[in-house]
From TrEMBL:
Signal peptide: none annotated. The keyword Oxidoreductase applies. One of its GO terms (molecular function) is FAD binding. It comes from Micromonospora radicis. Transmembrane segments: none annotated. InterPro entries: FAD-bd, FAD-dep_Monooxygenase_BioMet, FAD/NAD-bd_sf. Residues 4-163, 287-349 form the FAD-binding domain. This is FAD-dependent monooxygenase. It holds the Pfam family FAD_binding_3. The keyword Oxidoreductase applies.
Length: 394
């Protein structure tokens, strides 16, 4: 039986572990935390991410927990429409899912061929020719035919195999929260849409329906805000007060949502990315290999909501290639297929970052123009890039 060690039990690591196990691999999943713990927030999955999960045979589970994201268009803080809401075919619409529900669905998909070991912090990778690939935590060596590095933006495996890829700040911080329905302000049935301002951005989405007894007990309204600058060192209560100041006067329902947010709901995060991207995602080693997957391979700012979608694409692609070819060929093909794809999405995301984060008076005028003219084009082409992906055929 072929064996794999997957490092990291985030969305990417869980997805690929289950996919390999369902294809008959014996998988050891190593996670440094004492248990697999999702964030209490949500994630938007674009059609490519949904397609990837379906290719991983997780479609039925996803349908039970996903809410279609209402197209609320894109506005400026003064209410001016940058992109009007317009009806789109269902297959082009994203869905929004609570991360805890998504983790549960991925864990349910692990089956009994995945040995989950928590509290294991991988520190080294062995990738010398003539030996099987392996990782170590200083006490044990975990050897396998395939090592999947799904250990996130700070991946120790990537630092050793692709040291050219540096982790840098994206120049902004993000805040997210899910307001449970019982505390959510009364708003139209479904909430959606984004507001883009000078260095600030706010988006919201309904998770399930108010009062519905749907599959998830974690329904409510999810919102995410990003602001140029560093994360705030103050306690959540003060951060929330700052957010209320920054977003004062923004179109409804921004102020209502911030007012209904409890400080304990608030999740703040510094946004970081890889610049440059690694020169390789696949490293043939001895009879097998090592691959980079998810944020370990292509961490990017969340402006187009593509990080998790790409991690699922990675997992679906790797699983399909491993079904079709020998392990060394699959490692080489994974590298060949995934690098241009990730580079294309990262390129679009960086254009969006540039528009959102322009500073200086002259630059501000350019940014306002850009928000008005470039943003609709950028979002349109980003949606196209997202929609374009198809899983490799079985
Ligand atoms: C504010 C924000 C909003 C976002 N919104 C969206 C969205 O709407 N749609 C979307 O598609 N994407 C979104 N993303 C991106 C998405 O969250 C990430 O791309 C995705 O979660 C990456 O998953 P991952 O499994 O690759 O990495 P991670 O989630 O970082 O998981 C890595 C795992 O590896 C473990 N680990 C790390 N180092 C070691 C080690 N040495 N040994 C053992 N274990 C280790 C960690 O503990 C962790 O569990 C967003 C990101 C942010 C920051």
């Amino acid at each position: 039986m072929r064996t794999a060690v997957v490092v990291g039990g985030g969305l990417g690591g869980l997805a690929v572990s289950g996919a390999l196990a369902r294809s008959g691999w014996q998988v050891t999943l190593l996670e440094r935390a004492d248990r697999i713990r999702p964030e209490p927030t949500a994630v938007v999955l674009w059609p490519n991410g949904v397609r990837a999960l379906r290719a991983l045979d997780l479609g039925a589970g996803l349908d039970a927990i996903a809410t279609p994201l209402a197209d609320g268009g894109v506005r400026r803080p003064d209410g001016h429409w940058l992109v009007q809401p317009r009806p789109a075919p269902a297959e082009r619409l994203p869905v929004v899912v609570h991360r805890e529900d998504l983790h549960d669905a991925l864990i349910a998909g692990l089956g009994d061929r995945v040995e989950l070991r928590t509290g294991v912090t991988v520190r080294t990778v062995r990738a010398s020719q003539g030996e099987r690939p392996a990782v170590g935590d200083g006490r044990h060596t975990y050897e396998a035919d395939l090592v999947v590095a799904a250990d996130g933006v700070d991946s120790v495996i990537r630092r050793q195999l692709a040291p050219e890829a540096a982790v840098v700040s994206s120049g902004c911080a993000a805040w997210r929260a899910v307001i449970p329905w019982y505390r959510a302000p009364s708003l139209p049935d479904s909430v959606g849409g984004e507001i883009l301002g000078a260095g600030y951005r706010f988006g919201a989405a309904s998770l399930g329906e108010r009062g519905s007894s749907g599959a998830s007990s974690r329904g409510g309204i999810y919102w995410m805000a990003t602001a140029a600058g560093a994360p705030r060192p103050e306690p959540p209560q003060t951060q929330l007060a700052l957010l209320r100041r920054w977003y004062a006067g923004w179109p409804a329902p921004v102020e209502d949502l911030l007012a209904a947010t409890d400080p304990v709901d608030l999740v703040q995060q510094e946004i970081r990315e890889l610049r440059p991207l690694p020169k390789a995602y696949g490293f043939p080693v001895g009879p097998g290999g090592v691959v980079l997957l998810g944020d370990a391979a292509h961490a990017m700012p969340p402006h187009l909501g593509q990080g998790a979608c790409l991690a699922f694409e990675d997992a679906a692609t790797l699983a399909a290639l491993l079904r079709e070819s020998t392990l060394p060929d699959a490692v080489v093909a994974y590298d060949r297929v995934r690098r241009p794809r990730a580079a294309a999405v990262v390129r679009q995301t960086r254009r969006m970052s540039a528009v959102l984060q322009t500073r200086g008076r002259l630059a501000l005028r350019a940014r306002d123009a850009a928000l008005g003219t470039i943003t609709p084009r950028l979002l349109g082409s980003a949606a196209t890039v997202a929609a374009q992906w198809r899983p490799p055929s079985r």
